[in-house]
Design goal:
The protein is α+β, with helices and mostly antiparallel strands. It has 2 domains: 18-87 and 230-366, 3-Layer(bba) Sandwich (FAD/NAD(P)-binding domain), CATH 3.50.50.60; 125-226, D-Amino Acid Oxidase, Chain A, domain 2, CATH 3.30.9.30. It is 38% helix and 19% strand. It has 13 helices and 11 strands. Helix 1 packs parallel to helix 7 and helix 8 (276-305) crosses helix 12. The longest helix has 30 residues, at 276-305.
């Protein structure tokens, strides 16, 4: 398929900066590329010796793909990507499809601050099933061969699954109640296959079959914690981005996308003015409210996906079947427009003077009146 193209051009700085990027994650690498493309010098520091896969697929939403295209990366990313055509919303027990949310190609077009971490009560198993472990299971192979995201909803948990690596690996994220009260966050903690299968033992037989193919010893289990919004993302000339300031829970698939948005906006503001303080103030104004709104939406979506069997669950299912607002915000058209349709880089460039005024507590029209 054709990838996204537009005519947006990164502004060029009149006085290039030397930026120090701490961390070579998605946010760090993207902002380094953005700044380099704009004409700044960049140094990246990272504590690990090698960047390696941590065992999960990642969804590249339209708002992220737009920025990757401007960096000249999207075509290369697409060579190794699966393009999901829709997201199928399903009941855990009998695999009934309640509805489908179309995806591609239609959706293409401060000081002493403390990070307060609160357990959600949930964790997520993450597994990747190679094609060769599915041999002989035609239903599993069909799932692997079709570019459809499967979203099974059940009491206390849900599953999100889709093919990756050009339909050679099936990626599954299985959200479930957290055992005990530990809230340590780790990307490398191993999960127990037996415990995983026990929790999903009453889910439909297709799910149970898929879980049986999970390679022993390769199941990851990530604790899911929510983080309170920080008072500010800026201190002096240090600015936070990505998971450092708005870690996302995996209910609306926006963790990487919001980090990439941070990168795009930061590169723009640092290239539009030599006043670094004003630039960072605009960055926070553009990004903080939007990212935290998307971050907060996880709680709403989690509740909708994890309802126990009963009247409230039946009302949810009817709402998904119907034409109105979808309780699963990831599949709701209005929320999709907000998440995916907003071009944060273009809005920053087009409204920069207004944003500078507002970030300093002025109204631009009042400034114009005084000037006149």
């Amino acid at each position: 398929m054709d990838t996204y193209k537009d005519t947006f051009t990164l502004p060029r700085p009149s006085a290039p900066l030397h930026a120090l990027v701490v961390g070579a994650g998605i946010a760090g690498l993207t902002v380094a590329l953005d700044l380099h493309h704009a004409g700044h010098r960049v140094t990246i520091i990272e504590r690990v010796r090698m960047i390696a896969e941590v065992g999960a697929g990642i969804q590249m939403a339209p708002n992220a793909a737009r920025i990757l295209s401007r960096l000249g990366l999207l075509d290369e990313v697409m060579q190794n990507a699966n393009v999901l055509e829709k997201n199928s919303l399903r009941i855990y027990r009998d695999d009934e499809e309640l509805g489908a949310a179309p995806l591609m190609p239609g959706m293409a077009a401060h000081h002493n601050a403390k990070d307060i971490c609160q357990p959600t009560g949930h964790a997520a198993y993450r597994i990747m099933i190679p094609k060769d472990r599915m041999q002989g299971d035609q239903r599993a192979l069909r799932l692997l061969g079709q570019n459809v995201g499967m979203r099974w909803m059940g009491p206390g948990g849900h599953i999100m699954a889709y093919p990756i690596k050009n339909n050679t690996v099936y990626n599954m994220v299985l959200v479930h109640p957290q055992e005990g009260v530990a809230n340590e966050e780790s990307w490398t903690r191993k999960g127990d296959k037996k415990q995983m299968k026990e929790f999903y033992s009453e889910w439909n037989d297709l799910i149970r079959s898929l879980l049986s193919y999970a390679p022993d010893g390769e199941i990851m289990e990530w604790t899911l914690n929510s983080h309170f919004p920080l008072p500010t993302w800026i201190e002096n000339r240090v600015v936070l981005m990505g998971d450092a300031c708005h870690p996302m829970l995996p209910y609306v698939a926006q963790g990487a996308a919001q980090a990439i948005e941070d990168a795009g906006v930061l590169a723009c503001v640092l290239s539009l003015t030599e006043d670094i303080d004003s630039a960072l103030a605009v960055y926070e104004r553009v990004r903080k409210e939007r990212a935290e709104k998307i971050q907060k939406s996880a709680a709403v979506t989690r509740k909708a996906l994890h309802l126990p069997d009963g009247e409230e669950q039946r009302k949810r299912d009817e709402a998904i079947r119907g034409p109105g607002k979808n309780p699963d915000l990831w599949a709701d058209h209005d929320w999709q427009d907000f998440m995916w349709g907003t071009d944060v880089m273009k809005e920053t460039v087009d409204n920069f003077e207004d944003l500078v005024a507002r970030s300093h507590g002025y109204h631009p029209h009042a400034l114009n009146a005084v000037a006149y």
